[in-house]
Design goal:
- The complex is a heterotrimer of chains A (368), B (250) and C (305).
- Chain B is an alpha/beta fold and 250 residues long.
- Chain B is built from nine helices and ten strands.
- With 305 residues, chain C is an alpha/beta fold.
- The radius of gyration of chain C is 23 Å and the shape is elongated.
- Classes of the chains: A alpha/beta (368), B alpha/beta (250), C alpha/beta (305).
- Chains in contact: A-B, A-C, B-C.
């Protein structure tokens, strides 16, 4: 028994004297509780929807009032043509549009039946269903009110159109996110560990004391993983299109081009990590733990970014996978071309350049 | 010789096989209480495998052995309680202080608090470490670490202490201080089972055994071995025996 | 002009808390076989890393082949051969693959300088398809040496090449070095084994970051300040204690079969007096003779100075 206590005491010493372990032990849970408790949520709040009121009559106004009263949306009133609505969805500015046709009131009064069109961006099927069901329930409530007051069988029929993903496949949300996650984790982990392994085994010393340009070491290490990641990507795509039935409406070439860019971004992060540590174990910890949580939280495929408090949304902007996720969804699900994603691409290019410069500068051409 | 008579290690055709490879081939020998027994051999000769069996860390493939009277197959736990161990690779916990290390190992060996405190004071006094007692072991120079590790390995006054190349890379002065400690322990009746690459240290032993290719090729006092091989130093004896070795594995 | 020069080199770690190399100066001539002798922690590896431009010194200057280790590191890296401790090789590449890789990294081919490594390589050639991780210590040593030589360096730095290797391989290795020296390559070797010191042309004895002595082994031995005697008797362990308390004796160190002693004064009758004292203590088989000091004797003397 005494031996056992002795051993336990020793283990406590080890833990308290290792700052890395302490950070993980206490820091991690605190961060997670804070985030999950306050920031991350699956509830939909404050989504932006656009209301196109062609009727401009009393009937439509009453419903619009109720929509405005709801805390779930922020309403933007605009008279948009179909073409403009299309563009707004494509740019990702709006998640849902409610369209009142010109004869709304007339139809209601004379035919006792009128339609409201609800158009939702179903590339994120969860948000789309939730939002459209909020709207539908408001419309239904209004219908019941009308019926109660007037004992006439009014029917307000909401016609819902799910854009881009009519079958509301969950994979459309999930697969691009998994692509971003997998590519980033694998690239970061593999490059960082590979470089640090040379340092640990001592072969890096010999490479440095040679005419071989040390920067070529980095490139030579990254290249195999670049090629393998593209292969990985192909496998994921084939599996998701044929096994999961994911739509692929855009250009394959564009997707691969953008993915190549993203892979380079991830490799650059791996390089940066490898410069800051000398042991494979730390490299692995930093890559996995350090990357896993930010990617899962801030890419937007598990938790919609719009629902997060502002500070977190800002932080999400520095996570490369967030931009890649948007790019992939735009190409694969919305079938868009480069003109729609040039901004996100530019951001990725900027990040990559910055990371590459940083890692080359920090690469140690000496041991210390 | 010191208290010769009681046999503390006895092996009979002790063998360890790894698949087709016979690491240790039917080795047979005895070690007496209080002896300083040198266990020599080139890397790959089977030394480490043999030592692991004797320490109760590895079960033999065949043959028999008793350590401090305990059977090496069935009583490995009792063996571990009665021996001490120290190697070049592991000595003490670098992120604990000297005192914490002593307290920890004392506790592991089952010593009472009173005994631990007594021995702790004694040890620190002998090694002249009063000013360093509260420092982390990792901050000490190598030579001090090794001397400390040895003293901790015999904290519980075991019957036998196994030392695996304890003086590798240490400066010549500290090396001799280390052997002073070994002599003192041997005088107290502790049997020392030591492997080393320093041939002058082989001379300090009462008897030497040399392993080559898994077999014990020589077993005698240094003086007799030198006579037998017509050599003027243990270095020459070693070279003669090791030269013909076919196994040079690591 | 000497091939390798160090002037007042200082290297510290932990923001100056640990001084690994403390004001070290020495030079190595072209084609010399130079040994850096000292235990673990003496500063040998730090010195080598400064010379191979892997570490920046915190003070002092150094040059290799006339190039400054700080400013002209690129030139140095092109022309030196380096074998770090623990033979850093690619464990999952074969002997052949390792050699080819390093040859290419050094902008050359195996064939170009094969004559230089031939003698060494033929010993491991039969195993050329075996992975480096599965080689014995002696074979790893030979492979690492070939990889360090493959580009015909002008200066070769070998950091503890004989540590962890069996005694037979160690002897063979030094034979190889002697033959390499004949090719005109300057060779710096570090080792903790004092007996290897006599195999070098010149040596530096280093301890605690400081050089205690630099010269040829013979000269260092000649500089031993006193007459050295070897003594043995029936009970060596007790003998040690008794010698140390004897007032005639200045130093006494065990050296295996004999103890090495020096007397405080160099009086002729010392031996006789000592034998008388030991006889009085019932020692038998007393054998005492004067001997030439070994490098280890010199090292101990310098450490205690």
């Amino acid at each position: 028994m005494k031996q056992f206590i002795s051993f336990v005491k020793k283990e406590f010493y080890h833990v308290f004297r290792d700052s890395k372990t302490l950070l993980m032990l206490f820091g991690l849970p605190i961060v997670m509780i804070t985030l999950f408790g306050f920031a991350l949520t699956n509830e939909i709040k404050n989504s932006k929807i656009v209301v196109c009121d062609y009727a401009k009559d009393m009937a439509s106004q009453r419903i619009i009032n109720q929509l405005e009263a709801s805390t779930n949306f922020e309403i933007e009133k605009a008279l948009l043509s179909h073409h403009e609505i299309d563009a707004a969805f494509k740019s990702g500015k709006i998640k849902l549009a409610v369209v009142f046709p010109t004869n709304f009131n007339n139809d209601l009064m004379h035919l006792n039946k009128a339609q409201i069109q609800i158009i939702a961006d179903a590339s994120d099927p969860n948000t789309a269903s939730t939002l459209s069901s909020y709207v539908t329930s408001i419309i239904n409530n209004h219908q019941m009110e009308l019926m109660q007051n007037n004992s006439v069988p009014y029917q307000i029929i909401p016609e819902t159109r799910m854009l881009y993903n009519p079958e509301l496949k969950g994979s459309t949300n999930f697969v691009p996110g998994v692509m971003a996650l997998v590519l980033m984790l694998v690239c970061v982990l593999m490059t960082s560990v590979s470089i640090v392994r040379e340092k640990e085994k001592g072969t890096m010393e010999i490479l440095l004391v040679s005419p071989f340009n040390p920067f070529l070491v980095i490139i030579a290490k990254a290249l195999p993983y670049f090629v393998l990641s593209l292969l990985n990507l192909t496998i994921i795509l084939i599996m998701s299109v044929y096994a999961l039935g994911m739509p692929f409406n855009g250009s394959v070439l564009l997707l691969f081009a953008e993915s190549s860019l993203f892979i380079i971004t991830a490799l650059a992060v791996g390089l940066l990590i490898s410069n800051s540590t000398d042991s494979q174990q730390s490299a692995m910890l930093l890559s996995l733990m350090g990357m896993l949580i930010p990617i899962m939280m801030f890419t937007g495929f598990l938790f919609p970014l719009e629902n997060m408090p502002m500070p977190l949304q800002v932080i999400a902007n520095i996570v490369p996978s967030k931009w890649f996720y948007i790019i992939v969804k735009s190409i694969m699900i919305k079938g868009l071309g480069f003109s729609a994603i040039w901004k996100e691409t530019l951001i990725l290019v900027g990040m990559t350049t910055f990371l590459l410069i940083m890692s080359f500068r920090k690469f140690k051409i000496r041991l210390a | 010789m010191r208290n010769m008579g009681e046999v503390v290690i006895k092996t009979d055709k002790l063998t360890k096989r790894f698949g087709d490879f016979i690491a240790t081939n039917e080795i047979t020998f005895e070690v007496y209480a209080g002896e300083i027994f040198g266990f020599l051999g080139a890397n790959g000769a089977g030394k480490t495998t043999a030592m692991r069996m004797l320490c109760g860390l590895s079960i033999p493939s065949s043959g028999s052995a008793t350590i401090a009277g305990f059977d090496v197959y069935k009583q490995t736990e009792q063996i571990k309680k009665n021996i001490g161990y120290m190697s070049q690779k592991f000595s003490l916990y670098e992120d604990l202080t000297i005192i914490e290390n002593i307290k920890f190992f004392g506790g592991i060996y089952g010593l009472s608090d009173k005994q631990i405190n007594e021995k702790s004071d004694n040890l620190i006094e002998t090694l002249d470490l009063k000013n360093e007692a509260k420092k982390l072991v990792g901050s000490l120079p190598l030579g001090w670490k090794q001397k400390l590790a040895f003293s901790v390995a015999i904290l519980h006054e075991p019957k036998i202490v196994f030392l695996d190349e304890p003086t590798g890379g240490v400066d010549p002065v500290t090396r001799r201080q280390f052997w002073d400690l070994i002599y003192a322990a041997s005088d107290r009746g502790i049997t020392i089972f030591v492997t080393t690459h320093y041939m002058d240290e082989a001379e300090y032993c009462n008897r030497i055994s040399m392993m080559v290719d898994g077999l014990v090729k020589a077993l005698d006092t240094p003086t007799n071995l030198k006579k037998q091989f017509n050599a003027s130093s243990m270095d020459e004896v070693f070279f003669e025996l090791a030269r013909g070795a076919t196994r040079k594995a690591d | 002009m000497a091939d390798v020069v160090l002037n007042n080199i200082i290297k510290t770690y932990n923001k100056g808390a640990t001084v690994a190399v403390d004001d070290v100066s020495f030079s190595v001539e072209k084609g010399e076989l130079f040994g850096l002798i000292g235990p673990d922690g003496a500063g040998k590896t730090s010195i080598f890393r400064v010379l191979t431009t892997l570490l920046l010194p915190d003070g002092g200057t150094a040059s290799v082949n006339g190039y400054d280790v700080v400013k002209d590191y690129k030139s140095i890296r092109k022309h030196v051969g380096y074998m770090p401790g623990k033979f850093s090789l690619y464990q999952d590449l074969t002997i052949e693959e390792n050699l080819n890789f390093f040859a290419t990294v050094f902008n050359t081919t195996v064939e170009a300088n094969y004559d230089l490594i031939k003698e060494i390589y033929v010993q491991i050639e039969p195993f050329k398809k075996r992975r480096a991780g599965k080689l014995s210590g002696g074979m790893k040593q030979k492979l690492a040496l070939c990889c360090a030589l493959i580009h015909r360096p002008t200066v070769l730095f070998l950091d503890e090449p004989t540590t962890g290797v069996d005694t037979v391989s160690r002897k063979e290795f030094w034979e190889m070095l002697k033959r390499l020296k004949q090719q005109g390559i300057t060779i710096l070797v570090s080792t903790p084994y004092m007996d290897e010191a006599t195999l070098c042309e010149r040596i530096a004895l280093i301890q605690g970051g400081k050089i205690m002595s630099i010269d040829t082994p013979e000269t260092i031995v000649k500089q031993y300040p006193k007459n050295l005697f070897a003594i043995k008797a029936s009970q060596m362990s007790n003998l040690l204690t008794d010698l140390r308390i004897n007032t005639l004796i200045e130093s006494c160190n065990s050296f295996g079969e004999y103890h090495h002693i020096t007397f405080k004064s160099e009086a002729e009758k010392n031996n006789a007096d000592l034998v008388a004292y030991l006889n009085g203590k019932q020692y038998q088989g007393i054998d005492i003779k004067q001997i030439t000091p070994t490098i280890e004797d010199c090292f101990i003397k310098l450490m205690n100075a």
